[in-house]
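It is worth pausing here to work through a concrete case rather than discussing structure prediction in the abstract. The textbook approach is simple: state the sequence, then state the predicted structure, then interpret. We follow exactly that order.
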Amino acid sequence: MHAVRNAICCAMVIFIALQKMMQCEAQVQCPFPSPCSCLLDSSSVPSDQQRNTLICADKDLTIPELPDVRDNLNVTFFKVNLSHNHLESVPVQFVQSLPGIEYVDLTDNTFQNLPDFPELLRLKKLRLSQNQLTEVGASSFSKTPNLNTLMLDNNALVSIPPSAFSGLSRLNQLTLSSNQLETLESRSFQNLAKLDYLSLHNNHLVDLPDESFVGLISLHTLRLDKNKLVDLPEALFQPLTSLLRLDLDYNKVKFLPTKIFQPLSNLKTLYISANSLQSLPDGIFMNMQSLQHLDISKNSIDRVSSRHFGPQKVFNSITWLDLGSNTGLVIFSYDFFEHFPNLEVLSLMNLKLKYMPHLGSLKKLEVLEVSGTHISYIFPCDFFGLEALKEFYWDEAPINCDCQSKWMKEWTDKYTKNLPKNPRLNPKNSLPDWEWNCRKPIQMLRKDFKDISLSDVTQYCKPGEVQQWCHEVKNATGAVDLDLKVSALLGKFNVSWATHSGYIDIDKFISGFRVIVQRSDKPMGFRIANVEKNTTSILIGDITSGEIYKLCVEVLGFSGTMIQKNCTEQSIANSKATSDNSITGHAIRIALPVVIALVIVVIICAIVFYLRKKGHFQDPQATTPDVAFVNDYARRINDIENAENSVQFSGFSNEITLA
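Step two, the predicted structure:
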């Protein structure tokens, strides 16, 4: 019985194997003659669901040279590849002979125009890339209603008719990149309610109508990069409430309307790099609560502040920020990066920074790029707080390889240990591409920072100095309380403070204080004063009346790192200390001219009274009207007679002299 069972099992296995071999042999054979070939599906699904592919590509074929497929309808094809041939138009008869076709690839042929595409009700993907198309008909795709992907990139299209895509209600992806489009018609895409991806990059677009994207309620990605856009209408992106990614880089945009991005509350990625922007309007990124990735590099922006992001104090969503290569950006407001607590990648490449900005609040920062800056030395504890930092790019930097660089050596050694050891994965032998050369002490001159050991650095430490790296900060942070008081006195602020702690001896941890004064309307215009630790107040002058100022006092450790901070806002106009003094001064300024005028009037009156008393002024009532008239008339006649006898002309000066 066992032998019979085994024989039956073996027979069944052999039968199944032979059947599979017959199926494979049948599947390998292509029903079409050369020059085409087949890629047949080996799955056991019904023939009308198989993903069979007919390949007639790279043969330099013309339409007459295509095989006749009408006699081979026993095989259903999913895809036909006709790319890289010399087809001047769509091979209508050939394509219509494949009723089950879902994907037609006509890339790299010689199409110049596109009349109505043949009726293919199952067609889902059509690729017409790299042809010579100069126009698309108004109803070119009306007979392919189920199309979801249309690729028209790398052609010579100059314009798109308003109704070119009117019948494609299921279209999901549309690629029009690398053409010669100079503008768009209003509402060109209004019937594409399901469109998810639209690429218009690498065209010649100069301006866009307000209603260019009306109807694209499902659009997630819009690429407008590498065009010639200069001005963008404020309502341009109003319909794109579902947009997740917007590429505007490599254009010529000089100005952004304040509210242009406000409808994009779901946007996660925004590229506006490599434009001609010189400034950003306040609130430009307001209402973009989902923004994670922001690139504004390669512009001429001279100021970036939290006011560009709206009134909120913290912007939790942003994790990737590129501010590099902005030629005018040389300084940041002191607390700018405190507004981005979840930042993971920060690029400050090619900025004219002289010092590392204050980054201690970026607890999640993993990648920092400062290559190409003017930073020549990283001070001790500049990295304090950057607990997650994994990658640091700072090229050709001269390093002081002394005791104060111990912390940096420890960090770089730890970083290189985490790199993969496989040379194929990391061809630089597990060492980052850094060029940090020692410039002092003299014994370490020109040595590569990567090659020196930790003991090479610590040998120059003084007794006890080895433990100085931010040790006091770790112990003192949060243990020192700082009280701040500000009063206003005649255009000046009197800032006073007091420190106290119930946990540590303050004198052992505090080296001094830093006072920062910043106008609310000019975030970049701040002043900093460093004072000794025995100082508890400072007088700040040159304060504009009516303006609001932010005043901060920082407690500094012995390595210059902040261990506590307190801020307040103050205005001269709103300060009680100003009221009495300012009212008195204002009254004096008004009363002084009045007093002077009264004194002058009194003096004039006294002079007139004196002259009258001496008889220099005659009372007009002392002479009767008749006698006065006669006397006056006689005097006038006498003057005229004397004048007629004594007229003399003096050369050519036209001056008349009466002798």
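Step three, interpretation. The first helix runs from residue 2 to 28. The mean pLDDT is 78.
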